[in-house]
Amino acid sequence: YKVPPATRQLKVELWGAGGGSGHLREQAAGYGGGGAYVEALLLVFPGEFLQITVASGGSAGVRGRVDITPSENDEPQTTDVCGVAAGGVPGGGNGYGGNEVWAAGGGGGYTMIERFTKHGPRCMVLAAGGG
């Protein structure tokens, strides 16, 4: 976003993305937590550039499972496989399901505004966390 001429301040509102839903024993899924809300008045310079990153929400929980593989002896081989629910981008953590009973949803990503500087790296000026 390029700050318009004669603009010295911007009122901004940011929302972090929501987390993914979870599951427990074939019951109705629980809802993921909401992302944070931030409101601020930013001091800016006409013509400067701001990078606005909008977060994505976390995925719904995925249950784990047990894979059974036949073997040459009498007992089959069992392997536990965790279910993985992707976290939102950027910054949302993954959720895991360790068995067929429960699963946690992925965390929501954060929304942010960054300021470009003359010296290269960007500087984060405002962020709203994910749920």
Overall description:
Helices cover 0% and strands 39% of the residues. A hairpin with a 7-residue loop joins strand 5 and strand 6 (77-81). The protein has a three-stranded antiparallel beta sheet, with no helix packed on it. The protein is built from no helices and eleven strands. It has one domain. It has strands spanning 9-15, 23-24, 37-43, 50-53, 65-69, 77-81, 83-85, 95-97, 102-103, 111-116, 122-128. It starts with 8 loop residues before the first strand and ends with a strand. By secondary structure, it is an all-beta fold.
Keywords:
131 residues; mainly beta; 11 strands; 0% helix
* Quaternary structure state of the chains depicted: single chain
**How many strand units?**
11
Overall mean pLDDT score?
91
Q: Share of helix among residues?
A: under 10%
Q: So what's the overall shape?
A: elongated
Strand order of the largest sheet: 4-10-11
Strand content: 35-45%
Please summarize the sheet with the most strands: 3 strands, antiparallel
Low-confidence stretches: none
* Number of separate structural domains: 1
Structural class: mainly beta
- Our count of helices gives 0
End-to-end gap: 26 Å
Radius of gyration: 22 Å
Order of helices and strands: EEEEEEEEEEE
Spell out the blueprint of helices and strands.
Layout: E1 9-15, E2 23-24, E3 37-43, E4 50-53, E5 65-69, E6 77-81, E7 83-85, E8 95-97, E9 102-103, E10 111-116, E11 122-128
Antiparallel strand pairs: 1-3, 2-9, 4-10, 5-6, 7-8, 10-11
